[in-house]
Amino acid sequence: MPSTVSPYPDRRSWRSRFLRRVTKPEATLAEWWSGCVAVMWGMWLMNPWADPFATAPVYRSMAALAPSWTWGLIVSMIGVSQLRSLWTGGYEWQRGAFFAACVAWLFVGLCMLASSPSNTGAPVYVSLSLLQAAIYWRLKVDLIRSIQSGSTPPLSGL
């Protein structure tokens, strides 16, 4: 009787159920949503009629590093990269875009935490970073599985 080793040791454990849900091979709504959020947030920081860095003290540490339009441009470019990678299905591009988003949102969250430890934005941006990390990890697992099975990496997107 051949032995099949499951990557999930116990199908009933919470860890196994979590891993099975996070490592689905198809693109999820969360991937599309996170790219749209990055583009919208970045565009808002770049708008000429409002300067969020001047009106909200929670952005103090970010304003010390660069003006709001620079932050907006960086985050918008990351969001466009995420959406482009999902649209075209570029596997390596997709992993790079979601890794960059993970680092960017973590940095934004930590900057907000440094400016004002009592603000509610820091946990939101850190959770966005964790979402990007989970997507990146799922993409990495998909690549490993495709190499082990001898097939091509799965394409996400439409």
Word description of this protein:
- It is built from 7 helices and no strands.
- It is globular, with a radius of gyration of 18 Å.
- The mean pLDDT is 82.
- Helix 5 packs antiparallel against helix 6 and helix 6 packs antiparallel against helix 7.
- The chain has 158 residues and is mostly helical.
- The longest helix has 29 residues.
- It has one domain.
- Helix content is 71%, strand content 0%.
User: Could you spell the SSE succession in H and E letters?
Assistant: HHHHHHH
Largest beta-sheet details? none
Q: What are the low-pLDDT stretches, counting only 5+ consecutive residues below 50?
A: none
Strand fraction: under 5%
Percentage of residues in helical conformation: over 70%
Number of domains: 1
What is the number of helices? Answer: 7
Mean pLDDT: 82
State the secondary-structure class.
mainly alpha
Total strand segments: 0
Shape: globular
Q: What is the C-alpha radius of gyration, as a whole number of Å?
A: 18 Å
Distance between the termini: 40 Å
